[in-house]
Structure formats: structure tokens, C-alpha cells
Specification:
Layout (H helix, E strand, L loop, with lengths): L1 H6 L2 E5 L5 E6 H9 L3 E7 L2 E5 L1 H13 L10 E3 L4 E3 L3 E4 L14 H7 L16 E5 L14 E5 H7 L4 H4 L14 H6 L23
Parallel strand pairs: 1-7
Antiparallel strand pairs: 1-2, 3-4, 3-7, 5-6, 8-9
Length: 211
């Protein structure tokens, strides 16, 4: 289970010019490193270092054999032949396109915006136990937009049915809005684990105090 969790760890992806693009899983990050289309960016004592996959394996091996206590918020992948630390940041060596100026409207970003909380009962659920609800149903010409879609748990979704919240006697916990910045990045930055991402993001992302 730890290995699976480590492979699903979040890794910030930068473009060739060190500008933040998006977040991928560690599994995807390692695939890019193995293809030699990306490098690891490590920040130690305020200094930047870059490593290709083989060099990062050597660095990880040194850390593993140093006998020092493992750092907090660091994930490891352990195979039969070697151990390797999951990087927190990678840089694409040949991708020079600029970050998107608007946030993509998709399920992943809606779950992140609503913090995996049902917007009717306020409880947090695994993504698999949440659905996306049209506040104003499609039967009433409700649109599929940031301001009309929210997360809803199974029970609340059943209770609301094909009605508006008012008709169902329900109230939203907060008014849905279109996020100005990636909700996934904003959510991750609340954790100390991703402090190193700050240096590559606009201050608006991390103005909220870390939890």
C-alpha cells in the first residue's frame, strides 16, 4: 500500500523556463524521467540542483545508505534492485509552451475546488463516493459551468433529485465560483510537503496560510 501511495504522490511539472504547468503523479513523473524528457529539480538550502534519472538514483542511494533519519514528507519507491526518492518537482527539458492562463473545467479541478466536500451536507468523501450535481438541473436549462456544478455525495444527490436546492429544501455550503488559479495547486500548497513549489508559483497561489 505504501508503494501505491508513493506512486500516486504529487509532482509539480515545470516547463523549460522553470514555469509551473501542472501536477502529475509520481508514476507519470518517473516515466518522463526514464524517457529523458525531464529532469529532477531539487532545492537544498535554497540552492537549485538538477538531476537526470540515473543521477537521481545515485543521490537517493546515498541518502538511503547515510544512516540518517528519513526526512518528513518524503516518499520512497523501493524495488528489488534499488531505492529511489520521489521527486517533488521535475522540469520538462524540451517543452517551451507557457502555462495556460485559465483553469480547465474538468472533474478533477471541480473536486479540488470543493475540497472533496459535498456542497450540501459539508462532509468530505473519497472521489469515488462523490458525483457532480447541476445546481439548476438540465431539465430547467441549467448549464454545465463552474457556477452551476458542485460536488455532491450519494445521499444528498438522491435527496435533491432533479430539483433545484430551493425545491428540495436544501442549501449550498458556499456559492460555487470559477477559480482564478489551479485549485489542485492551491490545495496542495496547504501542506508543508509542497513548500518547495512556492518558488515557482505566483504569490496568489500560496497567500493562504499553510495548515
Amino acid at each position: 500500500m505504501q508503494q501505491v501511495a508513493a506512486l500516486e504522490s504529487s509532482v509539480l511539472v515545470l516547463n523549460k523556463f522553470f514555469m509551473a504547468l501542472h501536477v502529475v503523479s509520481a508514476k507519470r513523473a518517473f516515466a518522463l524521467l526514464c524517457k529523458e524528457t525531464a529532469e529532477v529539480i531539487s532545492i537544498d538550502d535554497g540552492k537549485f540542483s538538477s538531476y537526470n534519472f540515473e543521477n537521481w538514483k545515485d543521490v537517493s542511494l546515498y541518502k538511503a545508505k547515510s544512516g540518517l533519519p528519513e526526512e518528513d514528507n518524503v516518499s520512497w519507491i523501493r524495488t528489488v534492485s534499488f531505492e529511489i526518492e520521489v521527486p517533488k518537482i521535475i522540469r520538462l527539458l524540451f517543452y517551451d509552451k507557457l502555462p495556460q492562463s485559465s483553469v480547465k473545467f474538468n472533474r478533477r479541478n471541480i473536486f479540488a475546488r470543493d475540497e472533496n466536500k459535498c456542497q450540501y451536507c459539508g462532509q468530505r468523501f473519497p472521489t469515488s463516493e462523490l458525483s457532480l450535481d447541476h445546481i439548476v438541473p438540465k431539465t430547467y436549462h441549467g448549464k454545465t459551468t463552474w457556477t452551476n456544478i458542485v460536488c455532491a455525495c450519494t445521499e444528498c444527490n438522491k435527496k435533491k433529485g432533479g430539483r433545484t436546492p430551493e425545491q428540495a429544501g436544501m442549501r449550498l455550503k458556499r456559492k460555487p465560483v470559477k477559480p482564478k488559479h489551479s485549485p489542485i495547486l492551491s490545495l496542495k500548497l496547504r501542506s508543508d510537503k509542497y513548500r518547495s513549489w512556492k518558488q515557482f508559483l505566483d504569490e496568489a497561489y500560496w497567500s493562504v496560510p499553510l495548515k
